[in-house]
Amino acid sequence: MNIAGVVLAGGRSSRYGKPKMFETYEDKYFYQYSVEALKQNSISPIVIATNEKLIQYFEQGNVEFIIEEESDEYQGPLFAMYNAFSKITDAEWFFVLASDIPFVSTEFVKKMIDKAERSHSDAIVPIYSNTLQPLFALYHRRNLIKMEQLLTENKRKLQLLLKEINLLTVPFSSNESIFTNINSPEDWDQYKK
Ligand SMILES: Nc1nc2c(ncn2[C@@H]2O[C@H](COP(=O)(O)OP(=O)(O)OP(=O)(O)O)[C@@H](O)[C@H]2O)c(=O)[nH]1
């Protein structure tokens, strides 16, 4: 399988108050945990999708960057995914990971790839706490057409894409910390100890 890794690391971090992908956990930036989990599974290329204001703060080396132009900034995950997928021309699948998930693991990425290998679905999406987790998921390249259609109609919610494609859902038990995503400083205060 030809899989590219796409780490979503743009957005506004308005609830966090500062760019949350650069919050640290055990001396590493949050976004580095997403990069590492993909790298440990030999996924290549690994691309960080970000914007012109944030690019300067990332560590360089071993990853590529896809930069959203000023007019494309803050359009949300569906746009950021479309923008990245359409620029990575040689991948069949895209493993998307948000960059605000410091507890994501190599084993999680491996389990998801194993599912994709045996699936004819358009996307492989975990379910945790009865909720789909589309920012920790695998998407086939064939979704690009539907993504473009939605964006052209100014429909920017990722949930709208999920409704239109064939999903393979992968249940995870409700005590998995890997799905902890950090939105506010209070969220982080609760988990970092
Ligand atoms: N590249 C890119 N990533 C995004 C964009 N919007 C959100 N993300 C990423 O998607 C993940 C989930 O983002 P959210 O927490 O929903 O949105 P946010 O803008 O980061 O934060 P809030 O302003 O607090 O909603 C995070 O990893 C963000 O870095 C975007 O427009 N471009």
Automatic annotation (TrEMBL):
The keyword Cytoplasm applies. The keyword NADP does not apply. GO terms for molecular function: GTP binding; metal ion binding; molybdenum cofactor guanylyltransferase activity. Pfam families: NTP_transf_3. Residues 5-159 form the MobA-like NTP transferase domain. GO terms for biological process: Mo-molybdopterin cofactor biosynthetic process. It is found in: Cytoplasm. Its EC number is 2.7.7.77. SUPFAM superfamilies: Nucleotide-diphospho-sugar transferases (SSF53448). One of its GO terms (cellular component) is cytoplasm. InterPro entries: MobA-like_NTP_Trfase, Molybde_CF_guanTrfase, Nucleotide-diphossugar_trans. GTP binds at L8, A9, G10, K20, D100. It catalyses: Mo-molybdopterin + GTP + H(+) = Mo-molybdopterin guanine dinucleotide + diphosphate. Its cofactor is Mg(2+). Gene3D superfamilies: Spore Coat Polysaccharide Biosynthesis Protein SpsA, Chain A. Mg(2+) binds at D100. Keywords: Cytoplasm, GTP-binding, Magnesium, Metal-binding, Molybdenum cofactor biosynthesis, Nucleotide-binding, Nucleotidyltransferase, Transferase. Transfers a GMP moiety from GTP to Mo-molybdopterin (Mo-MPT) cofactor (Moco or molybdenum cofactor) to form Mo-molybdopterin guanine dinucleotide (Mo-MGD) cofactor. Belongs to the MobA family. The N-terminal domain determines nucleotide recognition and specific binding, while the C-terminal domain determines the specific binding to the target protein. This is Probable molybdenum cofactor guanylyltransferase.
